[in-house]
Design brief:
Layout lengths: L1 E2 L4 E4 L3 H36 L5 H33 L2 E3 L4 E6 L19 E4 L5 E7 L11 E6 L6 E9 L4 E3 L7 E10 L12 E6 L8 E3 L4 E3 L3 H6 L6 H13 L3 E8 L2 E6 L1 E5 L3 E6 L12 H7 L6 E3 L8 E3 L2
Antiparallel strand pairs: 1-4, 2-3, 4-5, 6-10, 7-8, 7-11, 8-10, 9-10, 12-17, 13-14, 14-15, 16-17, 18-19
């Protein structure tokens, strides 16, 4: 159901609030009468005190009674305003143009709404013309995201189209799941404003989003699985004999741990793998940019993670496999 701003949404049975307002009106009337009487007595006592007809203590009593009456009247006036406000809230109007996307109660159900307790959610009015997507981003990636970054959004209900969104809010507080367990995950909520207006979306739809933190045109890129790492002194370690001394072995392990491995790709050179050190730039889910170490037009070995990261070595024979990818190369020993 579509609503306009100011349209009546619902009414809460106002009997109790009307009775409270009537009682507040009666108390205000009573306090006003008491105030008028105290004011008259105070004025009379002040005039008589000026003529020396009453003592100072009697003037003080009249003054105190007048001040108390003024405070009581102010209190009753505030109570009447509160009762009027409570009665006004029994009629609820739409705060915006939108659509009733959720109705939680039916006619005759009891609802709660006081300053001491959390109120009952009655209904949800949403502006479906301004939809947003909310995604959880890991703590390692959140530092790369900035406001106004572009996002590509895939809605499960619209599989043949990617929507465009803009980052407009990044959560400052972490959302931790599985605290204290091995599955503990820390995420931050990022909100995306969807720009596409010609699609029908509904609150609660499932989606995934790819946020573009940086864009570079005309770069040299290779499949992300083609880039692997190798130890700086791996060949040297193979030639050295194993140290019988336990301390020497521990020192070698510490040294190897502190060394930063180099990033490499394997090229096809005369049907053999040739290892080339490279420097990576930005990347997405499928490709990574090569900043240096590789020239355009070279054939790069691509395959599974196990083949390239663990099995492939410099000089290993390779063969072309055209069954899955026209340009794919697989390692062969």
């Amino acid at each position: 159901m579509k609503m306009k701003k100011g349209d009546l949404l619902l009414k809460i049975k106002p009997d109790i609030y009307i009775a409270e307002r009537d009682r507040a009106v009666a108390m205000r009337t009573s306090s006003k009468a008491s105030l008028d009487r105290s004011a008259a007595e105070f004025k009379r006592a002040r005039d008589m005190s000026a003529k020396g007809l009453i003592s100072n203590s009697e003037l003080e009593q009249a003054t105190t009674a007048y001040e108390v009456a003024k405070a009581t009247h102010a209190q009753s006036d505030a109570a009447l305003k509160q009762a009027d406000e409570s009665l006004r809230k029994t009629t609820i109007y739409s705060p915006m143009d939108g659509t009733v996307s959720g109705l939680k109660v039916e006619l005759g159900q009891r609802v709660l709404g006081t300053s001491q307790f959390q109120g009952t959610e009655v209904m949800t009015v949403a502006d479906l013309s301004r939809m947003e997507a909310r995604v959880d981003v890991g703590e390692n990636d959140i530092i790369s995201i900035s406001a106004r970054d572009t996002a590509r959004i895939e809605v499960d209900a619209i599989p043949d189209r990617k929507l465009i969104g803009i980052v407009y809010q990044i959560g400052n507080s972490a959302k931790t799941k599985g605290l204290g367990t091995q599955e503990e995950v820390t995420n931050f909520e990022v909100r995306l404003r969807i720009h596409d207006k010609d699609v029908i979306l509904r609150p609660g739809m499932s989606m995934t989003a790819t946020i573009e933190t940086e864009t570079k045109p005309n770069v040299l890129a290779v499949p992300i699985q083609s880039v692997t790492t190798r130890s700086q002194n791996k060949d040297k370690e193979k030639k050295e004999a194993p140290e019988p001394d336990e301390m020497a072995a521990n020192d070698a392990k510490i040294k190897q741990k502190n060394e930063k491995p180099k990033e490499v790709v394997f090229l096809v050179d005369n049907n053999a793998a040739k290892m080339v050190e490279v420097k990576r730039g930005i990347s997405d889910d499928s490709y990574t940019e090569i900043v240096s170490g590789l020239q355009e037009g070279k054939e790069v070995v691509s395959g599974s993670y196990k083949s390239i990261n663990r099995e492939l070595e410099d000089g290993v024979k390779v063969k072309v496999d055209n069954t899955k990818n026209k340009n794919a190369k697989t390692a062969s020993k």
